[in-house]
Specification:
alpha+beta, Aspartate Aminotransferase, domain 1, 4 helices, globular
Length: 122
C-alpha cells in the first residue's frame, strides 16, 4: 500500500490502508502488543510497521490482495509449519486474507517465539 509519501509511524501507516485490511492489521497489531515486552518499540522499517526488541521482532503490512506478517527470525515459519498450513508462506512471510486475521493464539505463539530468539542475543 505504498501510495504517496512513506508513513512516519504505525498509526500513519494504518490510516493509509484501505478497509478491510486496516481493521485486520489493527487487530493483528493489538494481538502483538498484548504479548511483547513493555520495552518493545514500534518503528517503520522497509516502509512497514515493525516491532523492535533487541532487534526486529515482527512486522506487518497490507498489499493489494492480502496482508502479511513478517516474523524476522530464523526458523519461526518452519517451527509453526503445521499451524500455518493453508496460508501462503515463504522464508520470511506469512500471507493471510485482507479481511481475516491470523488466529490470535497463533500470532501470540509466533511473537513469543521471536521474543525468545531475540532475548538470546541479550
Amino acid at each position: 500500500m505504498r501510495k504517496g509519501k512513506a508513513a512516519k509511524n504505525a498509526d500513519e501507516y494504518l490510516a493509509n490502508v484501505p478497509e478491510p485490511a486496516r481493521s485486520t492489521l489493527k487487530h493483528v497489531r493489538a494481538v502483538i502488543r498484548s504479548v511483547v515486552p513493555k520495552e518493545t518499540t514500534e518503528v517503520i522499517s522497509y516502509g512497514m510497521p515493525m516491532f523492535k526488541y533487541n532487534g526486529m521482532l515482527v512486522g506487518y503490512a497490507a498489499f493489494k490482495n492480502h496482508c502479511s506478517l513478517f516474523p524476522t527470525g530464523s526458523g519461526v515459519i518452519e517451527k509453526f509449519a503445521k499451524e500455518l498450513k493453508g496460508y501462503a508462506t515463504s522464508r520470511g512471510t506469512i500471507q493471510f486474507p485482507s479481511d481475516k486475521p491470523l488466529p490470535d493464539a497463533l500470532v501470540k505463539k509466533i511473537v513469543k517465539a521471536r521474543v525468545a530468539e531475540n532475548k538470546e542475543w541479550d
